[in-house]
Amino acid sequence: MKKVSIVVPVYNEEDNIEHFAESVRMAMEPLDYAYEILFVDDGSRDGSRGILLKLELEDPHIHGIFLARNSGHQLALTCGLDYADGDAVITMDGDMQHPPELIPLLLEKWEEGNDVVQTIRQTTEGVSIFKRLTSKYYYKVLNTLSDVPIQPGGSDFRLMDRRVVIAFRRYREHARFIRGMVGAMGFRQVQVEFVAPPRFAGVSKFSLRKMARFAMDGILSYSSVPLRWAFYAGLFSGLCSILLLIHVFYATWMGSAVAGWATITVCILFFGGIQMVFLGIIGEYIGRIFEEVKGRPLYLVAKEPENRKGMESRMDSRA
Ligand code: UDP
Ligand code: MG
Q: Residue 88: CB within 6 Å of ligand 1?
């Protein structure tokens, strides 16, 4: 019998976990697969940990991996993918926004011979206009900048064949945008659309700051185009200064030159501003290089599942 691993990062989801586990159980029981639900507790501060420990005892399908601190959704997901050993691995959120009823369809597409079944969120019910618009335009910008096409509405609800998961484990960068990485990996990919319902309980764990950081990661780890902007901006301001020079010569020749304090001030501000912006962009990249060069572990596990002891140390021995 084939085994399906369901990987779920959770951060302060005490009111969702049990309902979620029950829904997955209902989706999986009628199917002819062995399965496990691998919860990755991303350093929760509420009762999530206790609930997971209890569920682990009650249901042999459920396992918990407890991270030492909050490492963020993408790294928690990475941890789950490192530990999952199913023939297919499904990653999804634990707040019911990725409907477990869709699991049979994902498995069906997998059995048809696809290696990655990527879900595309058509709309999210009850999400703010702000989040909807920023998401839409973000993907527009991202796609103009990036070499690999990234689907708007792409989510981290997807099925990956074991082969893809093993290949994915070789990508060890810190700043990551998993949906872009998987999209660019190749293999046989297929898409499935879904409508995301509102959260079952609790509030979104993505603060505006976390969203902005995630958005930056998406752009900066996928493209060096922002660095190229410096060249074009330099070209543009160079042209401007030549035009200005022509004007100055002309004014001098006509004898109408005045002490040009305003012009000088504007020029200094203009060029100073452009330089600052690009120093900032370069700084962002250098910061990321610094992070990656340190080669620190992506996440720290405080407690491993009973049946997978010692896995973290094996994973970290980068040959
Ligand atoms: N999550 C996590 N670590 C974090 C933030 C979120 O593991 O630092 C989990 C969260 O518990 C949920 C999933 O990632 O299962 C998606 O988060 P959320 O629903 O808050 O994001 P949204 O759906 O609002 O984009
Ligand atoms: Mg959510």
A: no
DSSP string, 155-216: EEEEEEEHHHHHHHTT---SS--HHHHHHHT-SSEEEEEEEEPPPSSS--S--HHHHHHHHH
For the cut 70, the answer to whether the pLDDT of residue 190 exceeds it is yes
Three-state SS letters, 233-249 = HHHHHHHHHHHHHHHHH
Question: Which of 174-178, 227-231, 262-266 is predicted least confidently?
Answer: 262-266
Q: Considering every ligand atom shown, identify the ligand nearest to the alpha carbon of residue 78 and give its number.
A: 1
Q: Which ligand 1 atom is at minimum distance from the Cα of 97?
A: 23
Q: Does residue 319 register a pLDDT over 60?
A: no
pLDDT at 313: 67
pTM here?
A: 0.79
Can you tell me the distance from the alpha carbon of 11 to that of 15, in angstroms, rounded to the nearest whole number? 11
Q: Is 9 in the pocket of ligand 1 (CB under 6 A)?
A: yes
